[in-house]
Amino acid sequence: MGMRVDEFTEILGAEFYTGVPDSQLQALCNYLMWEYGIDPRHHVIAANEGNCVALAAGYHLATGKIPVVYMQNSGEGNIINPIVSLLHREVYAIPMVFVIGWRGEPGIHDEPQHVYQGRITMKLLENMEIPAFVVGKDTTAMELLQEMEKFSGLLAQGRNVAFVIRKGSLVFDRKMQYKNPYPMAREDVIRHILSFSGNAPVVSTTGKASRELYEIREANGQGHERDFLTVGSMGHSSSIALGIALARPDTKVWCIDGDGAVLMHMGAMAVLGACAPKNLIHIVLNNIAHETVGGMPTVAGSMNLTAVASACGYTYVESADGFDDLDRKLALLKERQGLSFLEIKCALGARSNLGRPRTAPIDNKTEFMKYLAQL
């Protein structure tokens, strides 16, 4: 059945939450949006998990209260540095509670990018000296309360603790609807992009964009050797594309990115601008949402991504929000030389029958490398 998320949060007893949304924690994410929305006094969706830890540390320094940081277990890599060099009791001894969605739990089928991460989830917490309690569908409120009482003593000592959440362990009975004002469906946008990218290699970001790219190739009767699907390591597709573009300066490289991914490691844009490859087109599909994990908002709706790209040194910076405008700008990008940035404002939503790539990541890499070698 799972525990009601309001019971879960009541037992945690926190007044401030920050995190990066996760489908495994969708009940918690939806509850926080229902209860607080984006209220900086109580709830902030941050750019990446390390950012969350630092934000929560500041909250503790200012209030003396215990914050909660939530994330998918893939975010453990982003929190290692601030935990061991900032929070740890041998440094500043700043306490906080981590709530971690356990994707790729051993024995539970999941996508390939989650399998190894799932296997080492508990080990990473152990290595960071963070005691953890696993919450399952059968965990009772009393069991959780007893564990939280044990954790309270550790938190008082400046320690960190974690609740690792199995699939379906938290429930929230209200349906949340996330939307934006943009009309263009992302899958249609990708279809337009591919009509201009031709035989050029494409690096696509984590989540539904890569899934849609894969299915469009299938529908077109094309192979997948042109595309590198960044199924994990959110936020790094533009850097992968940069590495390819620098090594192959005579090959045009297209990168299909997302707003949440760009925000997660925005420093990559500064590096792209400094390297200034003339053969890289960086496209950001901006739907102002972490759609793949439930649709919770990003801050991309309250900032100017094109201004950021311009400040970073991209030589062509534009935004498109209609198909005629999009096609004109894609035609220009196909022919021009110079580091280019195109923001495309997309609607939220995907087909209910959207599938997943049936190609193993290692096979995708092999075929992609063969394709690059022959260009």
Q: Could you explain how this protein is built, in words?
A:
- The protein has 375 residues and is an alpha/beta fold.
- It has 14 helices and 16 strands.
- The strands form 4 sheets. The protein has a 6-stranded parallel beta sheet with strand order 3-2-4-5-7-6, sandwiched between helices. The protein has a 6-stranded parallel beta sheet with strand order 10-9-11-12-16-15, with helices on both faces. It has a two-stranded parallel ribbon with strand order 1-8.
- Strand 4, helix 4 (76-87) and strand 5 (97-101) form a beta-alpha-beta unit.
Keywords, separated by commas or semicolons:
about 375 residues; alpha/beta; 6-stranded parallel sheet; about 45% helix
In brief:
With 375 residues, this protein is α/β, with parallel strands linked by helices.
